[in-house]
Amino acid sequence: MFDNFPLWPQRASTMAGNVDALYIFLIIVCGLMTLLVFTAVIYFAARYRYRQGVPAEQIEGSIPLEVTWSVIPLGVFMVIFLWGAVVFFQSRTPPRDATEVYVVAKQWMWKLEHAEGQREINELHVPVGRDVKLIMTSQDVIHSFFVPAFRMKQDVVPGRYTVAWFRATKPGTYHLFCTQYCGTQHSGMIGDVVVMEPAQYEAWMSGAPTGPLSAAGEKIFAELGCATCHRSDGTGRGPNLHGVFGKPVALEDGRTVTADENYLRECILTPGDKRVKGFQPIMPPFQGLVSEEQVNALVAYVKSLSPSTQPGAATTSAAVVAPQASGKASPKATEGSQGN
Amino acid sequence: MATAITQPDAQPIERENYLNKHYGVWSWLLTTDHKRIALLYLMSITFFFFIGGFFALLIRLELLTPTGDLVQADTYNKLFTQHGQVMVFFFLIPSIPAVLGNFLVPMMVGAKDLAFPRINLLSWYLYIIGGIMMLHCMLTGGVDTGWTFYVPFSTAFSNTKVIEAGLAIFVVGFSSILTGLNFIVTIHRMRAPGMTWGRLPLFIWAHYATSVIQILGTPVIAITLVLVVAERALHLGIFDPKLGGDPLLFQHLFWFYSHPAVYIMILPSMGVVTEIIACFSRKRIFGYHFVALSSIAIAVFGFLVWAHHMFVAGISIYAALVFSILSYAVAVPSAVKVFNWTATLYKGSIHYDAPMLYAFGFLGLFTIGGLTGLFLACLGVDMHVHDTYFVIAHFHYIMVGGAVMGYLGGMHFWWPKISGKLYPEGWARLAALIVFIGFNLTFFPQFLLGYMGMPRRYFQYPAEFQVLNVLSTAGATVLGVGYLLPMIYFLWSMRYGKPAPDNPWNAAGLEWKTASPPPTFNFDEEPVVTWEAYNYDELDSEHKQEVPVVG
User: CA-CA distances (angstroms) from residue B100 to A129, B282, B495, B547?
Assistant: First the structure.
C-alpha cells in the first residue's frame, strides 16, 4: 500500500511491516492527541478572547481531571511500550539456523564475509526468504549498520560482536547506511544490500567459490598452533572445543557463561579474563596479533565443531557480553543477561 | 492589553534604577547585581546564539544539494559539531536560567539579590572563560567529534581539537552549577515574609527543578570529559577497547547528564510559559500544585531514562525494556503540564499580545516535540528512526520549538521590566509568526526524511532525499529572519522605545510591583506577601477601579 508513496521507505523485510504498523498506530494515537490539544487551545483562545466587561472565571483546578489526564495517557503509553517491546524483541532474536554473515566495519567501508566463504565490500548479496544473521564488529570506531528498507539498525562496536538479523522479502537493491558518526567520510560509508531470488543467489554464490569461512578458520587454527593444546580427545592442556558452542561454561572464578560468539572472541583475544574452570592460565592473548577477519574465521571454525547445537545460543542479541576488561570498567552498566 | 500599555505613566524625571545608578565598564564587569549579571549573560549568550545559528545556516546550505559542494566533508563535520556544542552548552543551558532566571528569581521571591552575588558574578566569568576557550578552539581548527564526543572516535581517531573543546565545556559546566546552587539557596532562604512555597510563582518551581538537575548532573559530564581528555592525552584505558576500556561506558556517562540536560533547557521554558499563560488569560493556573510537582517529577524521572539514547548501541534487550518504560513515565508529567495550560485558557479572558503568541507557539511545538518523543521511546520504532533526521526533528521541536520559543516569549514579557522600555508590539507579533512558520518549515520535513531513512550527520546524501532538504533549508532562512527581528527591535527600543510603566501587563508577581527598571535592591521596602500566586481576579478588579479604560 505504501510501496508507491513517495515519502515512505521501501519495505523489503519481514520486520518492515511490523515496524510500519506500529509507526502508523503511533501516528494515529499521537495525531489524535495533537488534535485534541490543538482543538482545545484554538477553541478556548477564540471563545474566551478578551471582551470588555467579561472577566475571567477563576478555577482552582480539579483533582479528578488531573488523575484522568495522567492515567489515560499512561495507559496509552503502556500499550505503545508493550507493542514496541514485542517488535523489538522479535528483531533482536535471530532465528535458529539463520545463514551467518560476518561484518567488519572500518573507516569508511563495510567488509562482509559469508559463512560460505564469499567476501564482499560495501555490498551484501542475500536471497529472498532466508533468515540472515549478521555478526558484526568494528576495527576502529563505532559504526552502525542501517538498512531502511529492512527497518533494521544495530551499532557496530569495536572490541565485541553485536548481532542483528533480517529476512528479505522482495528482490531489489537497497541502501545500506552507516548511521553512527565515524569521521570524515561518514556519509560515504554507504553500500547496497542486493536481495536476489534464490536461484540467482545460488548462481552468484557459486561464482567464485573460496571455501567456507570455517575452513579458513581451521587453517588459521593450525597455523597459530591452537591445535597443540585444544585437542579433540580432551587430553590437551586447553579445553576440548568440540561441542562447546552454545553450551554453558563453568569459569575458574565460579561464574557460568554461555559460549556464544562474544565469549569465543574474548577467549581468543584475552583468554585470561574468563578462564575455563580446571585449566591453567597458559594461553597467550592474541589481542593485536590477529585481524578481525581472522578472529571471525576462528569463531566460525569453533562453531563448526558443534554442528548440532542451536545457533540460538548466540541469540542474546546485541552484544550482551561486555568486552574484555570492561567488567572492571563498568560493573553494571553494560552487563547483559549472560551472568558475566 | 492595549488599555494597560497606553495608560499615562510617563515620568518626567528618570528614577534611579539598576541601569543608571552607576556608569562605566567597571561598574558592569565588577557588578554583583543579579540584574546586571543577567544582562551580561544576555549579551554573551546572544553572541553565541548567532555563532551557532550561523553554523546552522551553513549546514542547511550545504544540504541544499545531495553532493557535498559548499564546504569540505571535514569542515561540515566541524560545523555540525560546533553548532551543537555552542547551542547546547553556550546558549540553551544558560539561556533562560542565567538571563531571565538571574533577573527574576530574586525579585519573584521578594529578595534584594541572589544568596551569593559574588558567586553569581564568578559564574559569568567562568562562562566567559569557557566561551573564550571554545572560540579559541574554533578559530585554531575546531573539533569534529559531534557534540556527543563518542569514543573511541574522540579519544583515538579524531585529529581535531578535542581536548580544547572538552575543557571549554568542562569550565562552562561550573558556571551552570554555580547558577543552580545560587537559585536553590535563594529559593530556600530568601523568600519575603508571607511568600510560602505554595505561593511561589511556577517560574520559581521550574527553576528549582532545573537547579537540582544542574547541581546533580553537571559534575557527571565534567568528570566524563576529564576522562576523555585523560584517555586522549595520557592513553589511560577507560573507553577505548584497544586499551581495555568500554566504549558503551562513555555513552552511559554522557547521557546520564545529557538527557537530564534536555530538561535543564525545557523546564525553565515551561516556567516562563506558565507565567505568560496566566497573565494573558487573566487567570490563576489550573492545578497549581500539579504543575509545580510535575516540574519536580520531570527532574527526578529525567535522571532515570538516559539509556533510551542507546537502544541500538549494544545494550541488552532487558536494559532497553527498562529504559523504554521509564521514558514513558517521564512523558506523563510533561503531558500533565500541557493539559493544565490548556485548561487554564478555559473561561479566561485571553489577550493576544506578543508574549502570548510565543506561548501559543510553544504549546504547539512542544506538543509535537513531546509526542514524537513517544516514537523514539518506542523500542520497535526507535530501531528504525534512531540516528536519523527523525531524531533531529524531534529534539529541535523540544529545544528550539520549545525552549527558544519560551525564551523569546519571556524576553518579550519581561523586556519592559528589564529595559524600562516598550518594544514595538506589531513587529513583535510579526516576528512570532515568522519564527513559528519558519520553524515548522525547517523541521517538519525532517520527520519525513528520518522515517525515509536519511541518517543524521551526513555531508552528502542520496538524491531521493533532496526535495525535503530543500524545504528544510528554505525554512531555515525564514527562521533566521524571525530570530534577527527581535534582536533588532529590542536594541531599537532601548533608545527609541516608549518608557514602560511599572506593570504594563497588569501582571501578578512581585517583580511587577516595583519600578521598571527596578532599583538596584529591587524593592524600596521589603514586600510582605498576603496573596496567592496569580491573583488575577484581585488585580483586575483593582485595575477596573483605578484606571479608566482608554482606547
Answer: 60, 22, 21, 29
**CATH of segment(s) A1-51+58-209:** 2.60.40.420
Confidence of residue A4 (pLDDT cuts 50, 70, 90): low
Q: What integer pLDDT is reported at residue A273 of this predicted model?
A: 84
Q: How many CB pairs under 8 A join A and B?
A: 328
In this structure, how many other beta carbons lie within 10 angstroms of the beta carbon of residue B220?
Answer: 20
pLDDT at B43 over 90: yes
Q: Is residue B546 part of a domain?
A: no
Query: Which residue did the predictor score with more confidence, B9 or B79?
Result: B79
CATH code, domain carrying B318: 1.20.210.10
Q: Give domain status of residue B219, yes or no.
A: yes
With CB atoms and an 8 Å threshold, state whether A30 touches B371.
yes
Span B436-462, average pLDDT: 96
At B548 the pLDDT is 47
Instruction: Flag if B346 and A91 touch (Cβ within 8 Å).
Output: no
- Please name the residues in contact with B23: beta carbons below 8 A apart, sequence gap of 6 or more: none
What does the alpha-carbon distance between residue B393 and residue B380 come to, in Å, rounded to a whole number?
19
Nearest chain A residue to B319, by CA: A336
Give A-chain residues touching B453 at CB under 8 angstroms.
9, 146, 148-149, 175, 177
* Range with the poorest average pLDDT among A107-121, A229-243, A287-301, B19-33: A229-243
Q: Helices A292-304 and A213-223 sit at what angle, rounded to 10 degrees?
A: 100
Count of structural domains within chain B:
1
Residue range B79-107, pLDDT digits in tens: 999 999 999 999 999 999 999 999 999 99
Range of the domain at B200: 31-541
Q: Say what the ipTM of the complex is.
A: 0.91
The rounded distance, in Å, linking the Cα atoms of B436 and A47 is 22
Domain membership of residue B472 (yes or no) is yes
Record the pTM: 0.90
Compute the distance between CA of residue B49 and CA of residue B95 in angstroms, rounded to an integer.
9
Higher pLDDT, A2 or B424: B424
Distance (Å, rounded) from C-alpha B313 to C-alpha B13? 65
**Positive or negative CA dihedral for A228, A231, A235, A236?**
positive
pLDDT digits (tens, 9 = 90+) for B469-500: 999 999 999 999 999 999 999 999 999 999 99
Measured between beta carbons, which residues in chain B are less than 8 angstroms from residue A88? 311, 317, 320, 379-380, 382-383
CA A119 to chain centre: 20
Chain A residue numbers with beta carbons less than 8 Å from the beta carbon of B290 are: 61, 66
Q: Within chain A, which residue ranges are assigned CATH 1.10.760.10?
A: 213-329
Instruction: Judge: A70–B325 Cβ closer than 8 Å, yes or no.
Output: no
All three cell numbers of A286, joined, read: 592474541
Structural domain contains residue B536: yes
Q: With contact defined as beta carbons under 8 Å apart, do B183 and B103 qualify?
A: no
Residue pointed to by grid coordinates 529492512: A150
Q: CATH topology for A213-329?
A: Cytochrome Bc1 Complex; Chain D, domain 2 (1.10.760)
Instruction: Pinpoint the residues of chain A covered by CATH 2.60.40.420.
Output: 1-51+58-209
